[in-house]
Amino acid sequence: MRTIFRLLPWVIGSALVFHLAIAQETITVAERELLPADRLPRRNSAPRNTTHQLTLTLVYFTGGAWSRDAVVTTAMNAAAILEQCGVRLRQVELVRVDAPTRYRYFDTPVSRELARALQLAKPAIYFVTDTRRRPAFDAEAIGRGNSGTRPELADSVWVTRAARDVNIALAHELVHVLANSGAHVEQPGNLMRDETAPDNTRLTAAQCDQLRSVGAENGLLRRE
Ligand SMILES: [Zn+2]
């Protein structure tokens, strides 16, 4: 009897620790919302020459640095920049994830685990707190061309809370993913200049052609 009493707290204690360890490792989808374009806050004024439709998966975290509203607004504004290419946002799938803190940072091995666990439709945009990568980029895109040994990350964008001009930064990274190209240009005012700035929003006809044809070929855009 005495032995049992002495053992009991230890047994309960280790059971709790074990349970906690399991809980901390778990990645789960807490909430999924499908929002068609007409239910999004900024009804997109799609130009008449729309030829392609885009569906985005938007990932954010319970207790993370991004609110649901900030995620939706950023994605809407970024997609609006792509309208000049005849690409219209058709709908977004909002995914709120419960995961340990380390998954809220872009860090190649950890982020690969996250993407593998979630198996989401692409292109997927992850709204993370920050990046652990060095050099640190405010936003980063992984196209098929540069996914190499990290296939889980292909066709994804990682946006940190620190990103300046975040709508433009996200639009820029989306072009990298859709066009499957890491190319930058020098033209003033172009979205694909190396440096993100409020006035850099334009895309040339050739850039639009490339992102439409490659994006459709890779199943990231749907023809109207
Ligand atoms: Zn770039």
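^ zinc ion complex. The chain has one domain: 29-223. Residues 1-11 have pLDDT under 50 and may be disordered.
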